[in-house]
Design a protein that fits this description.
The complex is a heterodimer. By secondary structure, chain A is mostly beta strands. In chain A, 0% of the residues lie in helices and 47% in strands. In chain A, the strands form two sheets. In chain A, strands 1, 3, 4, 7, 8 and 9 form a six-stranded mixed β-sheet that branches. Chain A has a three-stranded antiparallel β-sheet with strand order 2-6-5, with no helix packed on it. In chain A, a hairpin with a 2-residue loop joins strand 5 and strand 6. Chain B has no helices and eleven strands. In chain B, a hairpin with a 5-residue loop joins strand 5 and strand 6. Chain B starts with a strand and ends with a strand. Classes of the chains: A mainly beta, B mainly beta. Chains A and B meet through strand 7 and strand 8 of A and strand 5 and strand 10 of B.
């Protein structure tokens, strides 16, 4: 089965840039989405189709992809961005999630 | 605005069947732009896709769960349902109902915690 790997944790200072990676075989050939999940809440879609932001998602969230790796970048990270982040790809009629990354804003 | 609300028993005994309902409001469950489905998250762990269904009944299931799950749509009630048979403690999780687009999941319910325990 298809697998997506993320670093377990990323730390960032307020105002700095956080980058979260997601690796999977030939991931660049698929669309990657990203979800933010705060404690006790449902996930929220923050990036879809690699680099598109849904309505209402701040511009500081951006996505990119290259080769086997996708990345979510948070520019000018704010305290409110502290959350778990999951990547997701669609592969052979299955929605596959990454292992998740906890972003801590120190 | 489309809203999703999960409901069902919060406690299920081992070997029994977990049954959940997702009520769709503020929009049509027959919308052709969406698939409907379920995702779960064990306590303190990551997200796992369970399966999706179109309003016409076409289904896609997680291969690891396929033998135990049934997802269906009742258009007359605007309900989406999930049945998971022969549950074990490993099935303890928050179960989310969601709307699926071709490549992503754009709307999630609040989630329902189901505990499998005797």
């Amino acid at each position: 089965s298809y697998e997506l790997t993320q670093p377990p944790a990323v730390s960032v200072s307020p105002g700095q840039t956080a980058s979260i990676t997601c690796s999977g075989d030939k991931l660049g050939d698929k669309y990657t989405s990203w979800y933010q999940q705060k404690p006790g809440q449902s996930p929220v879609l923050v990036i879809y189709q690699d680099n598109k932001r849904p309505s209402g998602i701040p511009e500081r969230f951006s996505g990119s992809t290259s080769g086997n790796t996708a990345a979510l970048t948070i520019t000018g990270t704010q305290a409110m961005d502290e959350a778990d982040y999951y990547c997701q790809a669609w592969d052979r009629n299955s929605y596959v999630f990454g292992t998740g990354t906890k972003v801590t804003v120190l | 605005q489309l809203q999703l609300q999960e409901s069902g028993p919060g406690l299920v005994k081992p070997s029994e069947t977990l049954s959940l309902i997702c009520t769709v409001s503020g929009g049509s469950i027959t919308a052709t732009s969406y698939y409907w489905g379920w995702i779960r998250q064990p306590p303190g762990k990551g997200l796992e896709w369970i399966g999706t269904v179109s309003y016409r009944g076409a289904t896609y299931y997680n291969p690891s769960l396929k033998s135990r799950i049934t997802i269906s749509v009742d258009t007359s009630k605007s309900h989406l349902s999930l049945k998971l048979t022969s549950v074990t403690a490993a099935d303890t999780a928050v179960y989310f109902c969601a709307t699926f687009r071709e490549t992503d999941i754009d709307r999630w319910g609040q989630g329902a915690l189901v505990t499998v325990s005797s």
